[in-house]
Design goal:
By secondary structure, this protein is mainly alpha-helical. The chain has 15 helices and three strands. 76% of the residues lie in helices and 4% in strands. It has a three-stranded antiparallel sheet with strand order 1-2-3, with no helix packed on it. Helix 4 packs across helix 9 and helix 7 runs parallel beside helix 13. The C terminus is likely disordered.
Length: 383
């Protein structure tokens, strides 16, 4: 809810700026923007802050450096903290590059005007707000590890989808989706850090993460902006999105600590839909491996759906509606028992290997030196 309040102004501000740019010009907007920082400074003056250091600047500097080293050692020793630390680098690389390329894409490639560009920027804020409210209402039951990784991967994939936009409408749709995805990882990481980080380390851990990412925020626009001049804006964004997906996959799936934050608990605390589509697994398979497969499949399907919407527009809605109807009918048929295999089929397969139907339910198949062996109550048959 704090994120929703914080990003709420990003809906009206850019839209208002786009209109004022047409009416008043760019110079007026720059002065107006400077004035908002003055208002923020006045608000900051009202805060009551407690300073730990006195007038000894040298000792304060030495203690600050010592604390930075201490916090970095803490992050490096804690496997979950280290994994969360590495995860943010691919996402920031994509986000910083997108900040540099979104303007040439929108105005240069698609050719929208100032008012439309303001609306385009405000749609990001709508995505932030919607995701923040949904997480505030329903996010308490979602696995945090899946929330973080899904936000990072979705952000990179949808950035690639934005590069494929050919119309103003497609640009708006992809902007909303990217804003929505970025909020998922932002809220997910913030809540996990507050859960696993000691109170006396929390502020310094967050600060160190921001300082470490400042270099990426400088390099990414220079790198992908230069690539855009060489290979094109769309191609540079696609390459950037691919690097983000690959980097996130390596950082997320290369270690287990973050996933075990949620897998170690009871998955029944998750919402029904989330538990069914993401956290479901078969007992004969590894739970973590099955979760990875579920997440990967959902992302592939979501990326395909986004491309379909961008390319086909309203016609894609009929396809999604048809798929939803078929899914609902399938669930209804299964609940009525029509989806269950008839008993005749069960009896037929139970006779394989000379196992009588009577003892079929008690059979356990194992692999021995002479082939498959069936062990039943009082009966053992090799086949």
């Amino acid at each position: 809810f704090f994120a929703a309040m914080e990003t709420g102004t990003e809906i009206f501000g850019p839209a208002l700026a786009g209109i004022l740019a047409l009416v008043k010009g760019y110079s007026f907007l720059v002065y107006l923007d400077a004035g908002t920082y003055f208002v923020s400074a006045l608000c900051m003056m009202g805060l009551k802050l407690t300073y730990r250091f006195g007038s000894d600047t040298d000792s304060a500097r030495r203690e600050t450096i010592a604390q930075i080293v201490e916090v970095f050692r803490y992050i490096r020793r804690d496997q979950c903290q280290w994994q969360l630390f590495l995860l943010i680098f691919p996402s920031v690389l994509v986000g910083a590059g997108l900040n540099a390329l979104q303007t040439p894409l929108a105005k240069g490639e698609i050719g929208i005007n100032d008012a439309q560009f303001g609306t385009f920027q405000s749609v990001w804020g709508v995505g932030f707000l919607v995701a923040s409210l949904l997480l505030g209402w329903f996010g308490h039951g979602m696995p945090r590890s899946v929330l973080i990784v899904s936000g990072f991967l979705l952000g990179s994939i949808l950035t690639g989808g934005m590069s494929l936009s050919r119309s103003y409408e497609g640009l708006l749709l992809s902007a909303f989706a990217v804003g929505f995805a970025n909020t998922l990882n932002y809220v997910g990481i913030a809540t996990v850090l507050m859960r696993i980080t000691p109170d006396y380390f929390l502020g310094r851990v967050i600060s160190l993460r921001q300082v470490a990412l400042s270099g990426v925020r400088v390099v990414a626009p220079l790198l992908f902006g230069s690539l855009a001049d060489l290979i094109g804006v769309r191609e540079s964004m696609l390459l950037m999105a691919s690097i983000g997906v690959a980097g996130t996959a390596v950082a997320a799936f290369g270690a287990r600590p973050m996933w075990e934050l949620d897998l170690g608990g009871d998955s029944a605390t998750a919402s029904v839909m989330w538990n069914r589509f993401v956290c479901s697994y078969s007992p004969e398979f590894d739970r973590l491996d099955q979760l990875r497969l579920n997440v990967s499949s959902i992302f592939l399907a979501g990326f395909g759906a986004l491309i379909l919407v961008i390319r086909s527009g309203p016609r894609a809605a009929f396809l999604f509606a048809g798929a939803a109807v078929v899914s609902v009918l399938g669930v209804m048929l299964r609940r009525t028992g029509l989806g269950e295999a008839p008993d005749s089929y069960k009896r037929m397969f139970a006779t394989v290997g000379n196992v009588s139907p009577v003892n079929a339910s008690n059979s356990v198949w194992t692999k021995g030196k002479r082939g498959l062996q069936s062990k039943t109550a009082g009966n053992r048959t090799d086949s």
